[in-house]
Specification:
- By secondary structure, the chain is α+β, with helices and mostly antiparallel strands.
- It has a single domain (2-131), classed as Fusion Protein Consisting Of Minor Coat Protein, Glycine Rich Linker, Tola, And A His Tag, Chain: A, Domain 2.
- The chain is built from four helices and five strands.
- The protein has helices spanning 2-25, 42-53, 58-62, 95-106; strands at 67-75, 81-87, 114-116, 119-121, 123-131.
- The strands form two sheets. It has a three-stranded antiparallel sheet with strand order 2-1-5. Strands 3-4 form a two-stranded antiparallel ribbon.
- A hairpin with a 2-residue loop joins β3 (114-116) and β4.
- α1 packs across α2 (42-53).
- It is elongated, with a radius of gyration of 15 Å.
Length: 134
């Protein structure tokens, strides 16, 4: 139960952060598409996917390490994800947290692609993945 509560807080914080900054993190072109890419089933489904698939790295947990890993990726016109990598936002990233964040994003199903002027377009996104002990 405690672990589920931890993931619920983790995902709620990351999702709210993502939703608040989505326009900033969509970086494909100067003009944003009319319809942004969407995880299948929406935000609630993304939160569930993260809860079901993300594991706090054992060593990081043991050391009580916390932090946010920003994972940048492209949602292609077919909804597949490519160019998955992390971007550094100040503090050095723990390799175990980076590997876990990338593993989870790589395992995601296809997203609904972005739409601009009635056509599907590729869009670069950044997803903050928060590692926080409850």
């Amino acid at each position: 139960m405690k672990q589920r509560t931890f993931f619920t807080r983790l995902l709620a914080g990351a999702t709210l952060f993502l939703l608040a900054l989505a326009p900033i993190f969509a970086q494909h072109s100067a003009e944003l598409p009319e319809k942004m890419p969407e995880y299948p089933g929406g935000t609630a489904a993304l939160m569930q996917y993260m809860s079901d698939n993300m594991a706090y790295p054992a060593e990081a947990k043991k050391e009580k390490a916390e932090g946010t890993v920003f994972v940048k990726f492209t949602v292609n016109t077919d909804g597949s994800l490519s160019d998955i990598k992390t971007v550094s936002e100040g503090a050095p990233l723990r390799p175990d947290m980076v590997l876990e964040a990338i593993r989870v994003v790589k395992g995601m199903p296809k997203w609904a692609p972005a739409q601009k002027a009635g056509k599907t377009v590729s869009v670069e996104m950044t997803l903050p993945i928060v590692f926080k002990l409850g």
